[in-house]
Amino acid sequence: MLPFFFLLLSITCLAQTSSVRGRVSNEAGEALTGVSISVRGTTTGTTSDSNGNYQLSNLPADAVLVFSYIGYSAQEIRLDGRSQLNVVMREAARSLQDVVVVGSRSHNRSVTETPVAIDIIPIREIALTSGQLDVNQLLQLVAPSFNANRQSGSDGSDHVDPATIRGLGPDQTLVLVNGKRRHQSALINIFGTRGRGNTGTDLNTIPAAAIERIEILRDGAAAQYGSDAIAGVINIVLKSSVEEFTSSVNTGITKEGDGEQYQVNGNYGFRIAEKGFANLTLDYLKREKTNRPADPAVYDIYRRQFGDASSDNFTGIYNAEIPVNEQASFYTFGTFNFRDTDAFAWTRDADSERNIPAIYPNGFDPHIQSRILDRSFSTGFKSKLREWDLDLNNTFGANRFHYFVDGTLNASLLEQSPTRFDAGGFELIQNTTGLHLTRYFKDILAGSNFAFGTEYRIENYEIFAGEEGSYRNYGIIDTVINGRVRQVDVLGRAAGSQGFPGFRPENELSEYRTNIGAYADAEFDITSAFMVAAAARFENYSDFGGTLNGKLASRLELTDNFAIRGSVSTGFRAPSLAQIYFNTTFTDFVSGQPVDKVISRNNSPLTRRLGIPALKHERSVNGSLGFTGSFRSFTATVDGYYVRIRDRIVLTGAFEDTDPDIGEDLQALGVGAGQFFTNAVDTRTLGVDVILNYATTFGADNILNVSFAGNFNDLEIQNIATTPRLAGKEDTYFGLREQRFLLASAPPSRMNLIFDYRLRDWNLNLKFNRFGEIVLIDWLGEEDVYKPKVTTDLAIAKKLSENFGITLGAVNLFDVYPTKQDTETESGGLWDPVQMGIGGAFYYARLRFNF
């Protein structure tokens, strides 16, 4: 990379002729903090400080400055040699291209005026000094309330990272794209991962190159946005820029010399008529495996290959709007993502009964591979209906997860076994149609906003079988015993593809359900300093009935620089179709020994025989209270929260075939253990989010930003409810191991301290990340304690010319690893999949282009 770097340094810079400084304010003359100021077609940019001031140097004579801010219309102003340029930003209340800010449906309210906590993450600026190439990992290092983990040896969870807000479930966070509901992944996490027993949304199907910003609403919002919004809402806003081409080429490698990553992307937008646009993005990301096995001389090793999976990830995205007239426009956006992945499963030893030495004399490490196809398409019409803003939309989304197993065998086929199998998979399809109306009344009180609407959603979940050899036991034959035909296993060999047995024909299904919802939302500015918001939502599901939820929120501005805010709400989350219908037989490892297990679907005869009831929706009560304040160059937001969830859906522990109540049923199925999805747990979460920021300028070209962000979270399991038939079996139903997996959804504390310094064409970013202590239970029933750890990230960015820039940096600069355990962990390696990761130091370089 060094010759490449010095070659780039030799690029002749374009003529620089001027500098500019100024102040950015709203129409009332109030300073706006954090306004993005960029030079169109270049990598140059800055943000306004707490007094609204900004400064840029070494600009071309014909530079066009672009000013953008949440809740305000963007402005493009040609410099024309000026050295002083003050800008007044105008609210975007009447624009057809209204910005989307979660937490409020009022077009007249900026993000700083909302009564709930919202993070606005400008991806373009964050990506400048971040070595993370996928959205999940990028977000968890800038938003402490966001948690994402990479897995190892966890089947499909190795290929899709489970992600959460405030330590709740992945399926308790609703994801929107441009304000429209995003479909979830078809995958359900079933091993000892974060999000065990949950589905979630795969954020890595949308690359950072296509994203303008990400809005994170850290508050219960089911009454506003519907199911899955118990923990909050993530809204991904796609780029709408025009007449600008941006691209980056990224590469990196770990200190150990593996885990290589390569990424190339491009984004371009062009105008349609005077006010329309079409913005296109292509992105390709290749990630190689890491391998961090235990030393066999020290540990009783179960896995020779232990680390992150490899993947090839291709994405295409478009975002467009076409005006019809001054009052109406059509809009559409869509995503296409294809991911080809490869992860190592557990090692099969040479002398294992699951190995055929003639095929693998030294044993083998099966590869679990997946082909994930994710696509979505959204189209809509926005217009004025008298004085109301109307939005009619239809959004389709589908996620297909297809398994293959390579470097494996079916032991019951002996030497005749193939070494690669199609293992089947599953698919989730979702289509949502919505009608939304919003109107602002400036003469009611000090201003009021009303919104209401309705949505109709249809979902389909499908499981499709693999090829016969991926699941069949060829050693079972029919024989006559005492005059009756019985099936006998004459080989005693394990069936199906080792590493991941395929889905069987009896697992196949295609299930549908529908949902209709209606909501009303109102915000009242009682005075210019005091507002109250209320929302109510009714939803009815075809499979379990209806639910009504509400929310109240308020904000009181005590001074120009200090305000308090709070909310209280009820919420719900419908069980996903995967939680209701998923069923499979798979191989798990207990203390290194393989055990065939069955997960029985919720409405199966076996589940009913045990008295486990039909799944119902989770119910929540949310409360938050906090304040925002600023003093000169210092700003602070502190928000405490309370979340009580009843009837959380979990995956039970494994009931073995020796159990007196369920053993005979499992033996009849030929499996060693059975698990089920059930509403078993009540939880209570208390926490606080703290965000502090200090920004200052000194000298002619020096800009320093110091920020601290912390999440402090306490999750408590308050009740475990078994069925009458399984009373007294709480240790298996939802035992201590499963409880610790749930409690470890997020560290009890998570903190970032960031120093960002800019001097002319240079940008230095230093970040400290602290991960709190996590305690898990291993297969021997002993505690695995992961002590608090601090990692350090460093990035140096240099603008080489107006159109080129380079960033060199390191993630986890000092090569810090989690606390070492033994191979009795859930994953069979030296570490469980804790949030800080197990890859060690990662060094990267990024080349940026703007034209």
Automatic annotation (TrEMBL):
Signal peptide range: 1-15
Location(s) in or outside the cell: Cell outer membrane
TonB-dependent receptor plug domain ranges (all copies): 111-233
Main subcellular location of this protein, as a coarse class: membrane
Membrane disposition: Multi-pass membrane protein
Domain TonB-dependent receptor-like beta-barrel: start-end pairs: 330-813
Domain of life: Bacteria
InterPro entries xref list: Beta-barrel_TonB, Beta-barrel_TonB_sf, CarboxyPept-like_regulatory, Plug_dom, Plug_dom_sf, TonB-dep_rcpt-like
Entry keywords, A to Z: Cell outer membrane, Membrane, Receptor, Signal, TonB box, Transmembrane, Transmembrane beta strand, Transport
Stated family: Belongs to the TonB-dependent receptor family.
Protein name: TonB-dependent receptor
